[in-house]
Amino acid sequence: MILPFTIVVIVVALLAALVCLGFAIAKRGPNDYQLGALALLELLLIAQAVIAIVAPFVGNPPTGNPVEFGAYALAAILIPVLAVFWALRERDRWSSVVLGVAALAIAVMLWRMQLIWTVQAG
Q: E strand or H helix at 77, and its extent?
């Protein structure tokens, strides 16, 4: 994985979480801004997955457990999709909370994925 790209994706995830949770605090349901933020995050996660697939072939293999990394990557890609489906099904303020929590979870998962990729397993 590429650290600067990972940091960009984490920042986008945190900004998306702030937007979604801000709308939840304002007691507003999901809207185009929130769904767009999660869609952008999903695109970046797909790009991150492509980078993770290509990286070992160009001399940047993971040093941690690749199965654990793959599980995190798969879950990270699925979480925004499931959160958006939830938000479209139930259009209330709690759906905004779900979107925000999903974005926060993605930020944490990406940092963990970076650690798995770069830190030697003990």
A: helix 66-89
Write the single-letter amino acid at 9: V
Structure tokens at 17: 């979480």
Helices (H), ranges, the chain: 3-25, 32-54, 66-89, 93-118
Q: Specify the DSSP class assigned to residue 90.
A: S
- For residue range 36-83, what is the model confidence (pLDDT) as tens digits? 999 999 999 999 999 999 999 998 888 888 899 999 999 999 999 999
- Of 81, 102, 99, which Cα lies nearest the Cα of 30? 99
From the number of C-beta atoms within 10 Å of its C-beta (0-12, 13-18, 19+), residue 87 rates as buried
- CA 54 vs. chain centroid, Å, equals 19
- pTM for the full predicted model: 0.92
Compute how many other C-beta atoms are within 10 angstroms of the C-beta atom of residue 71: 13
Domains of the chain: 3-118 (1.20.120)
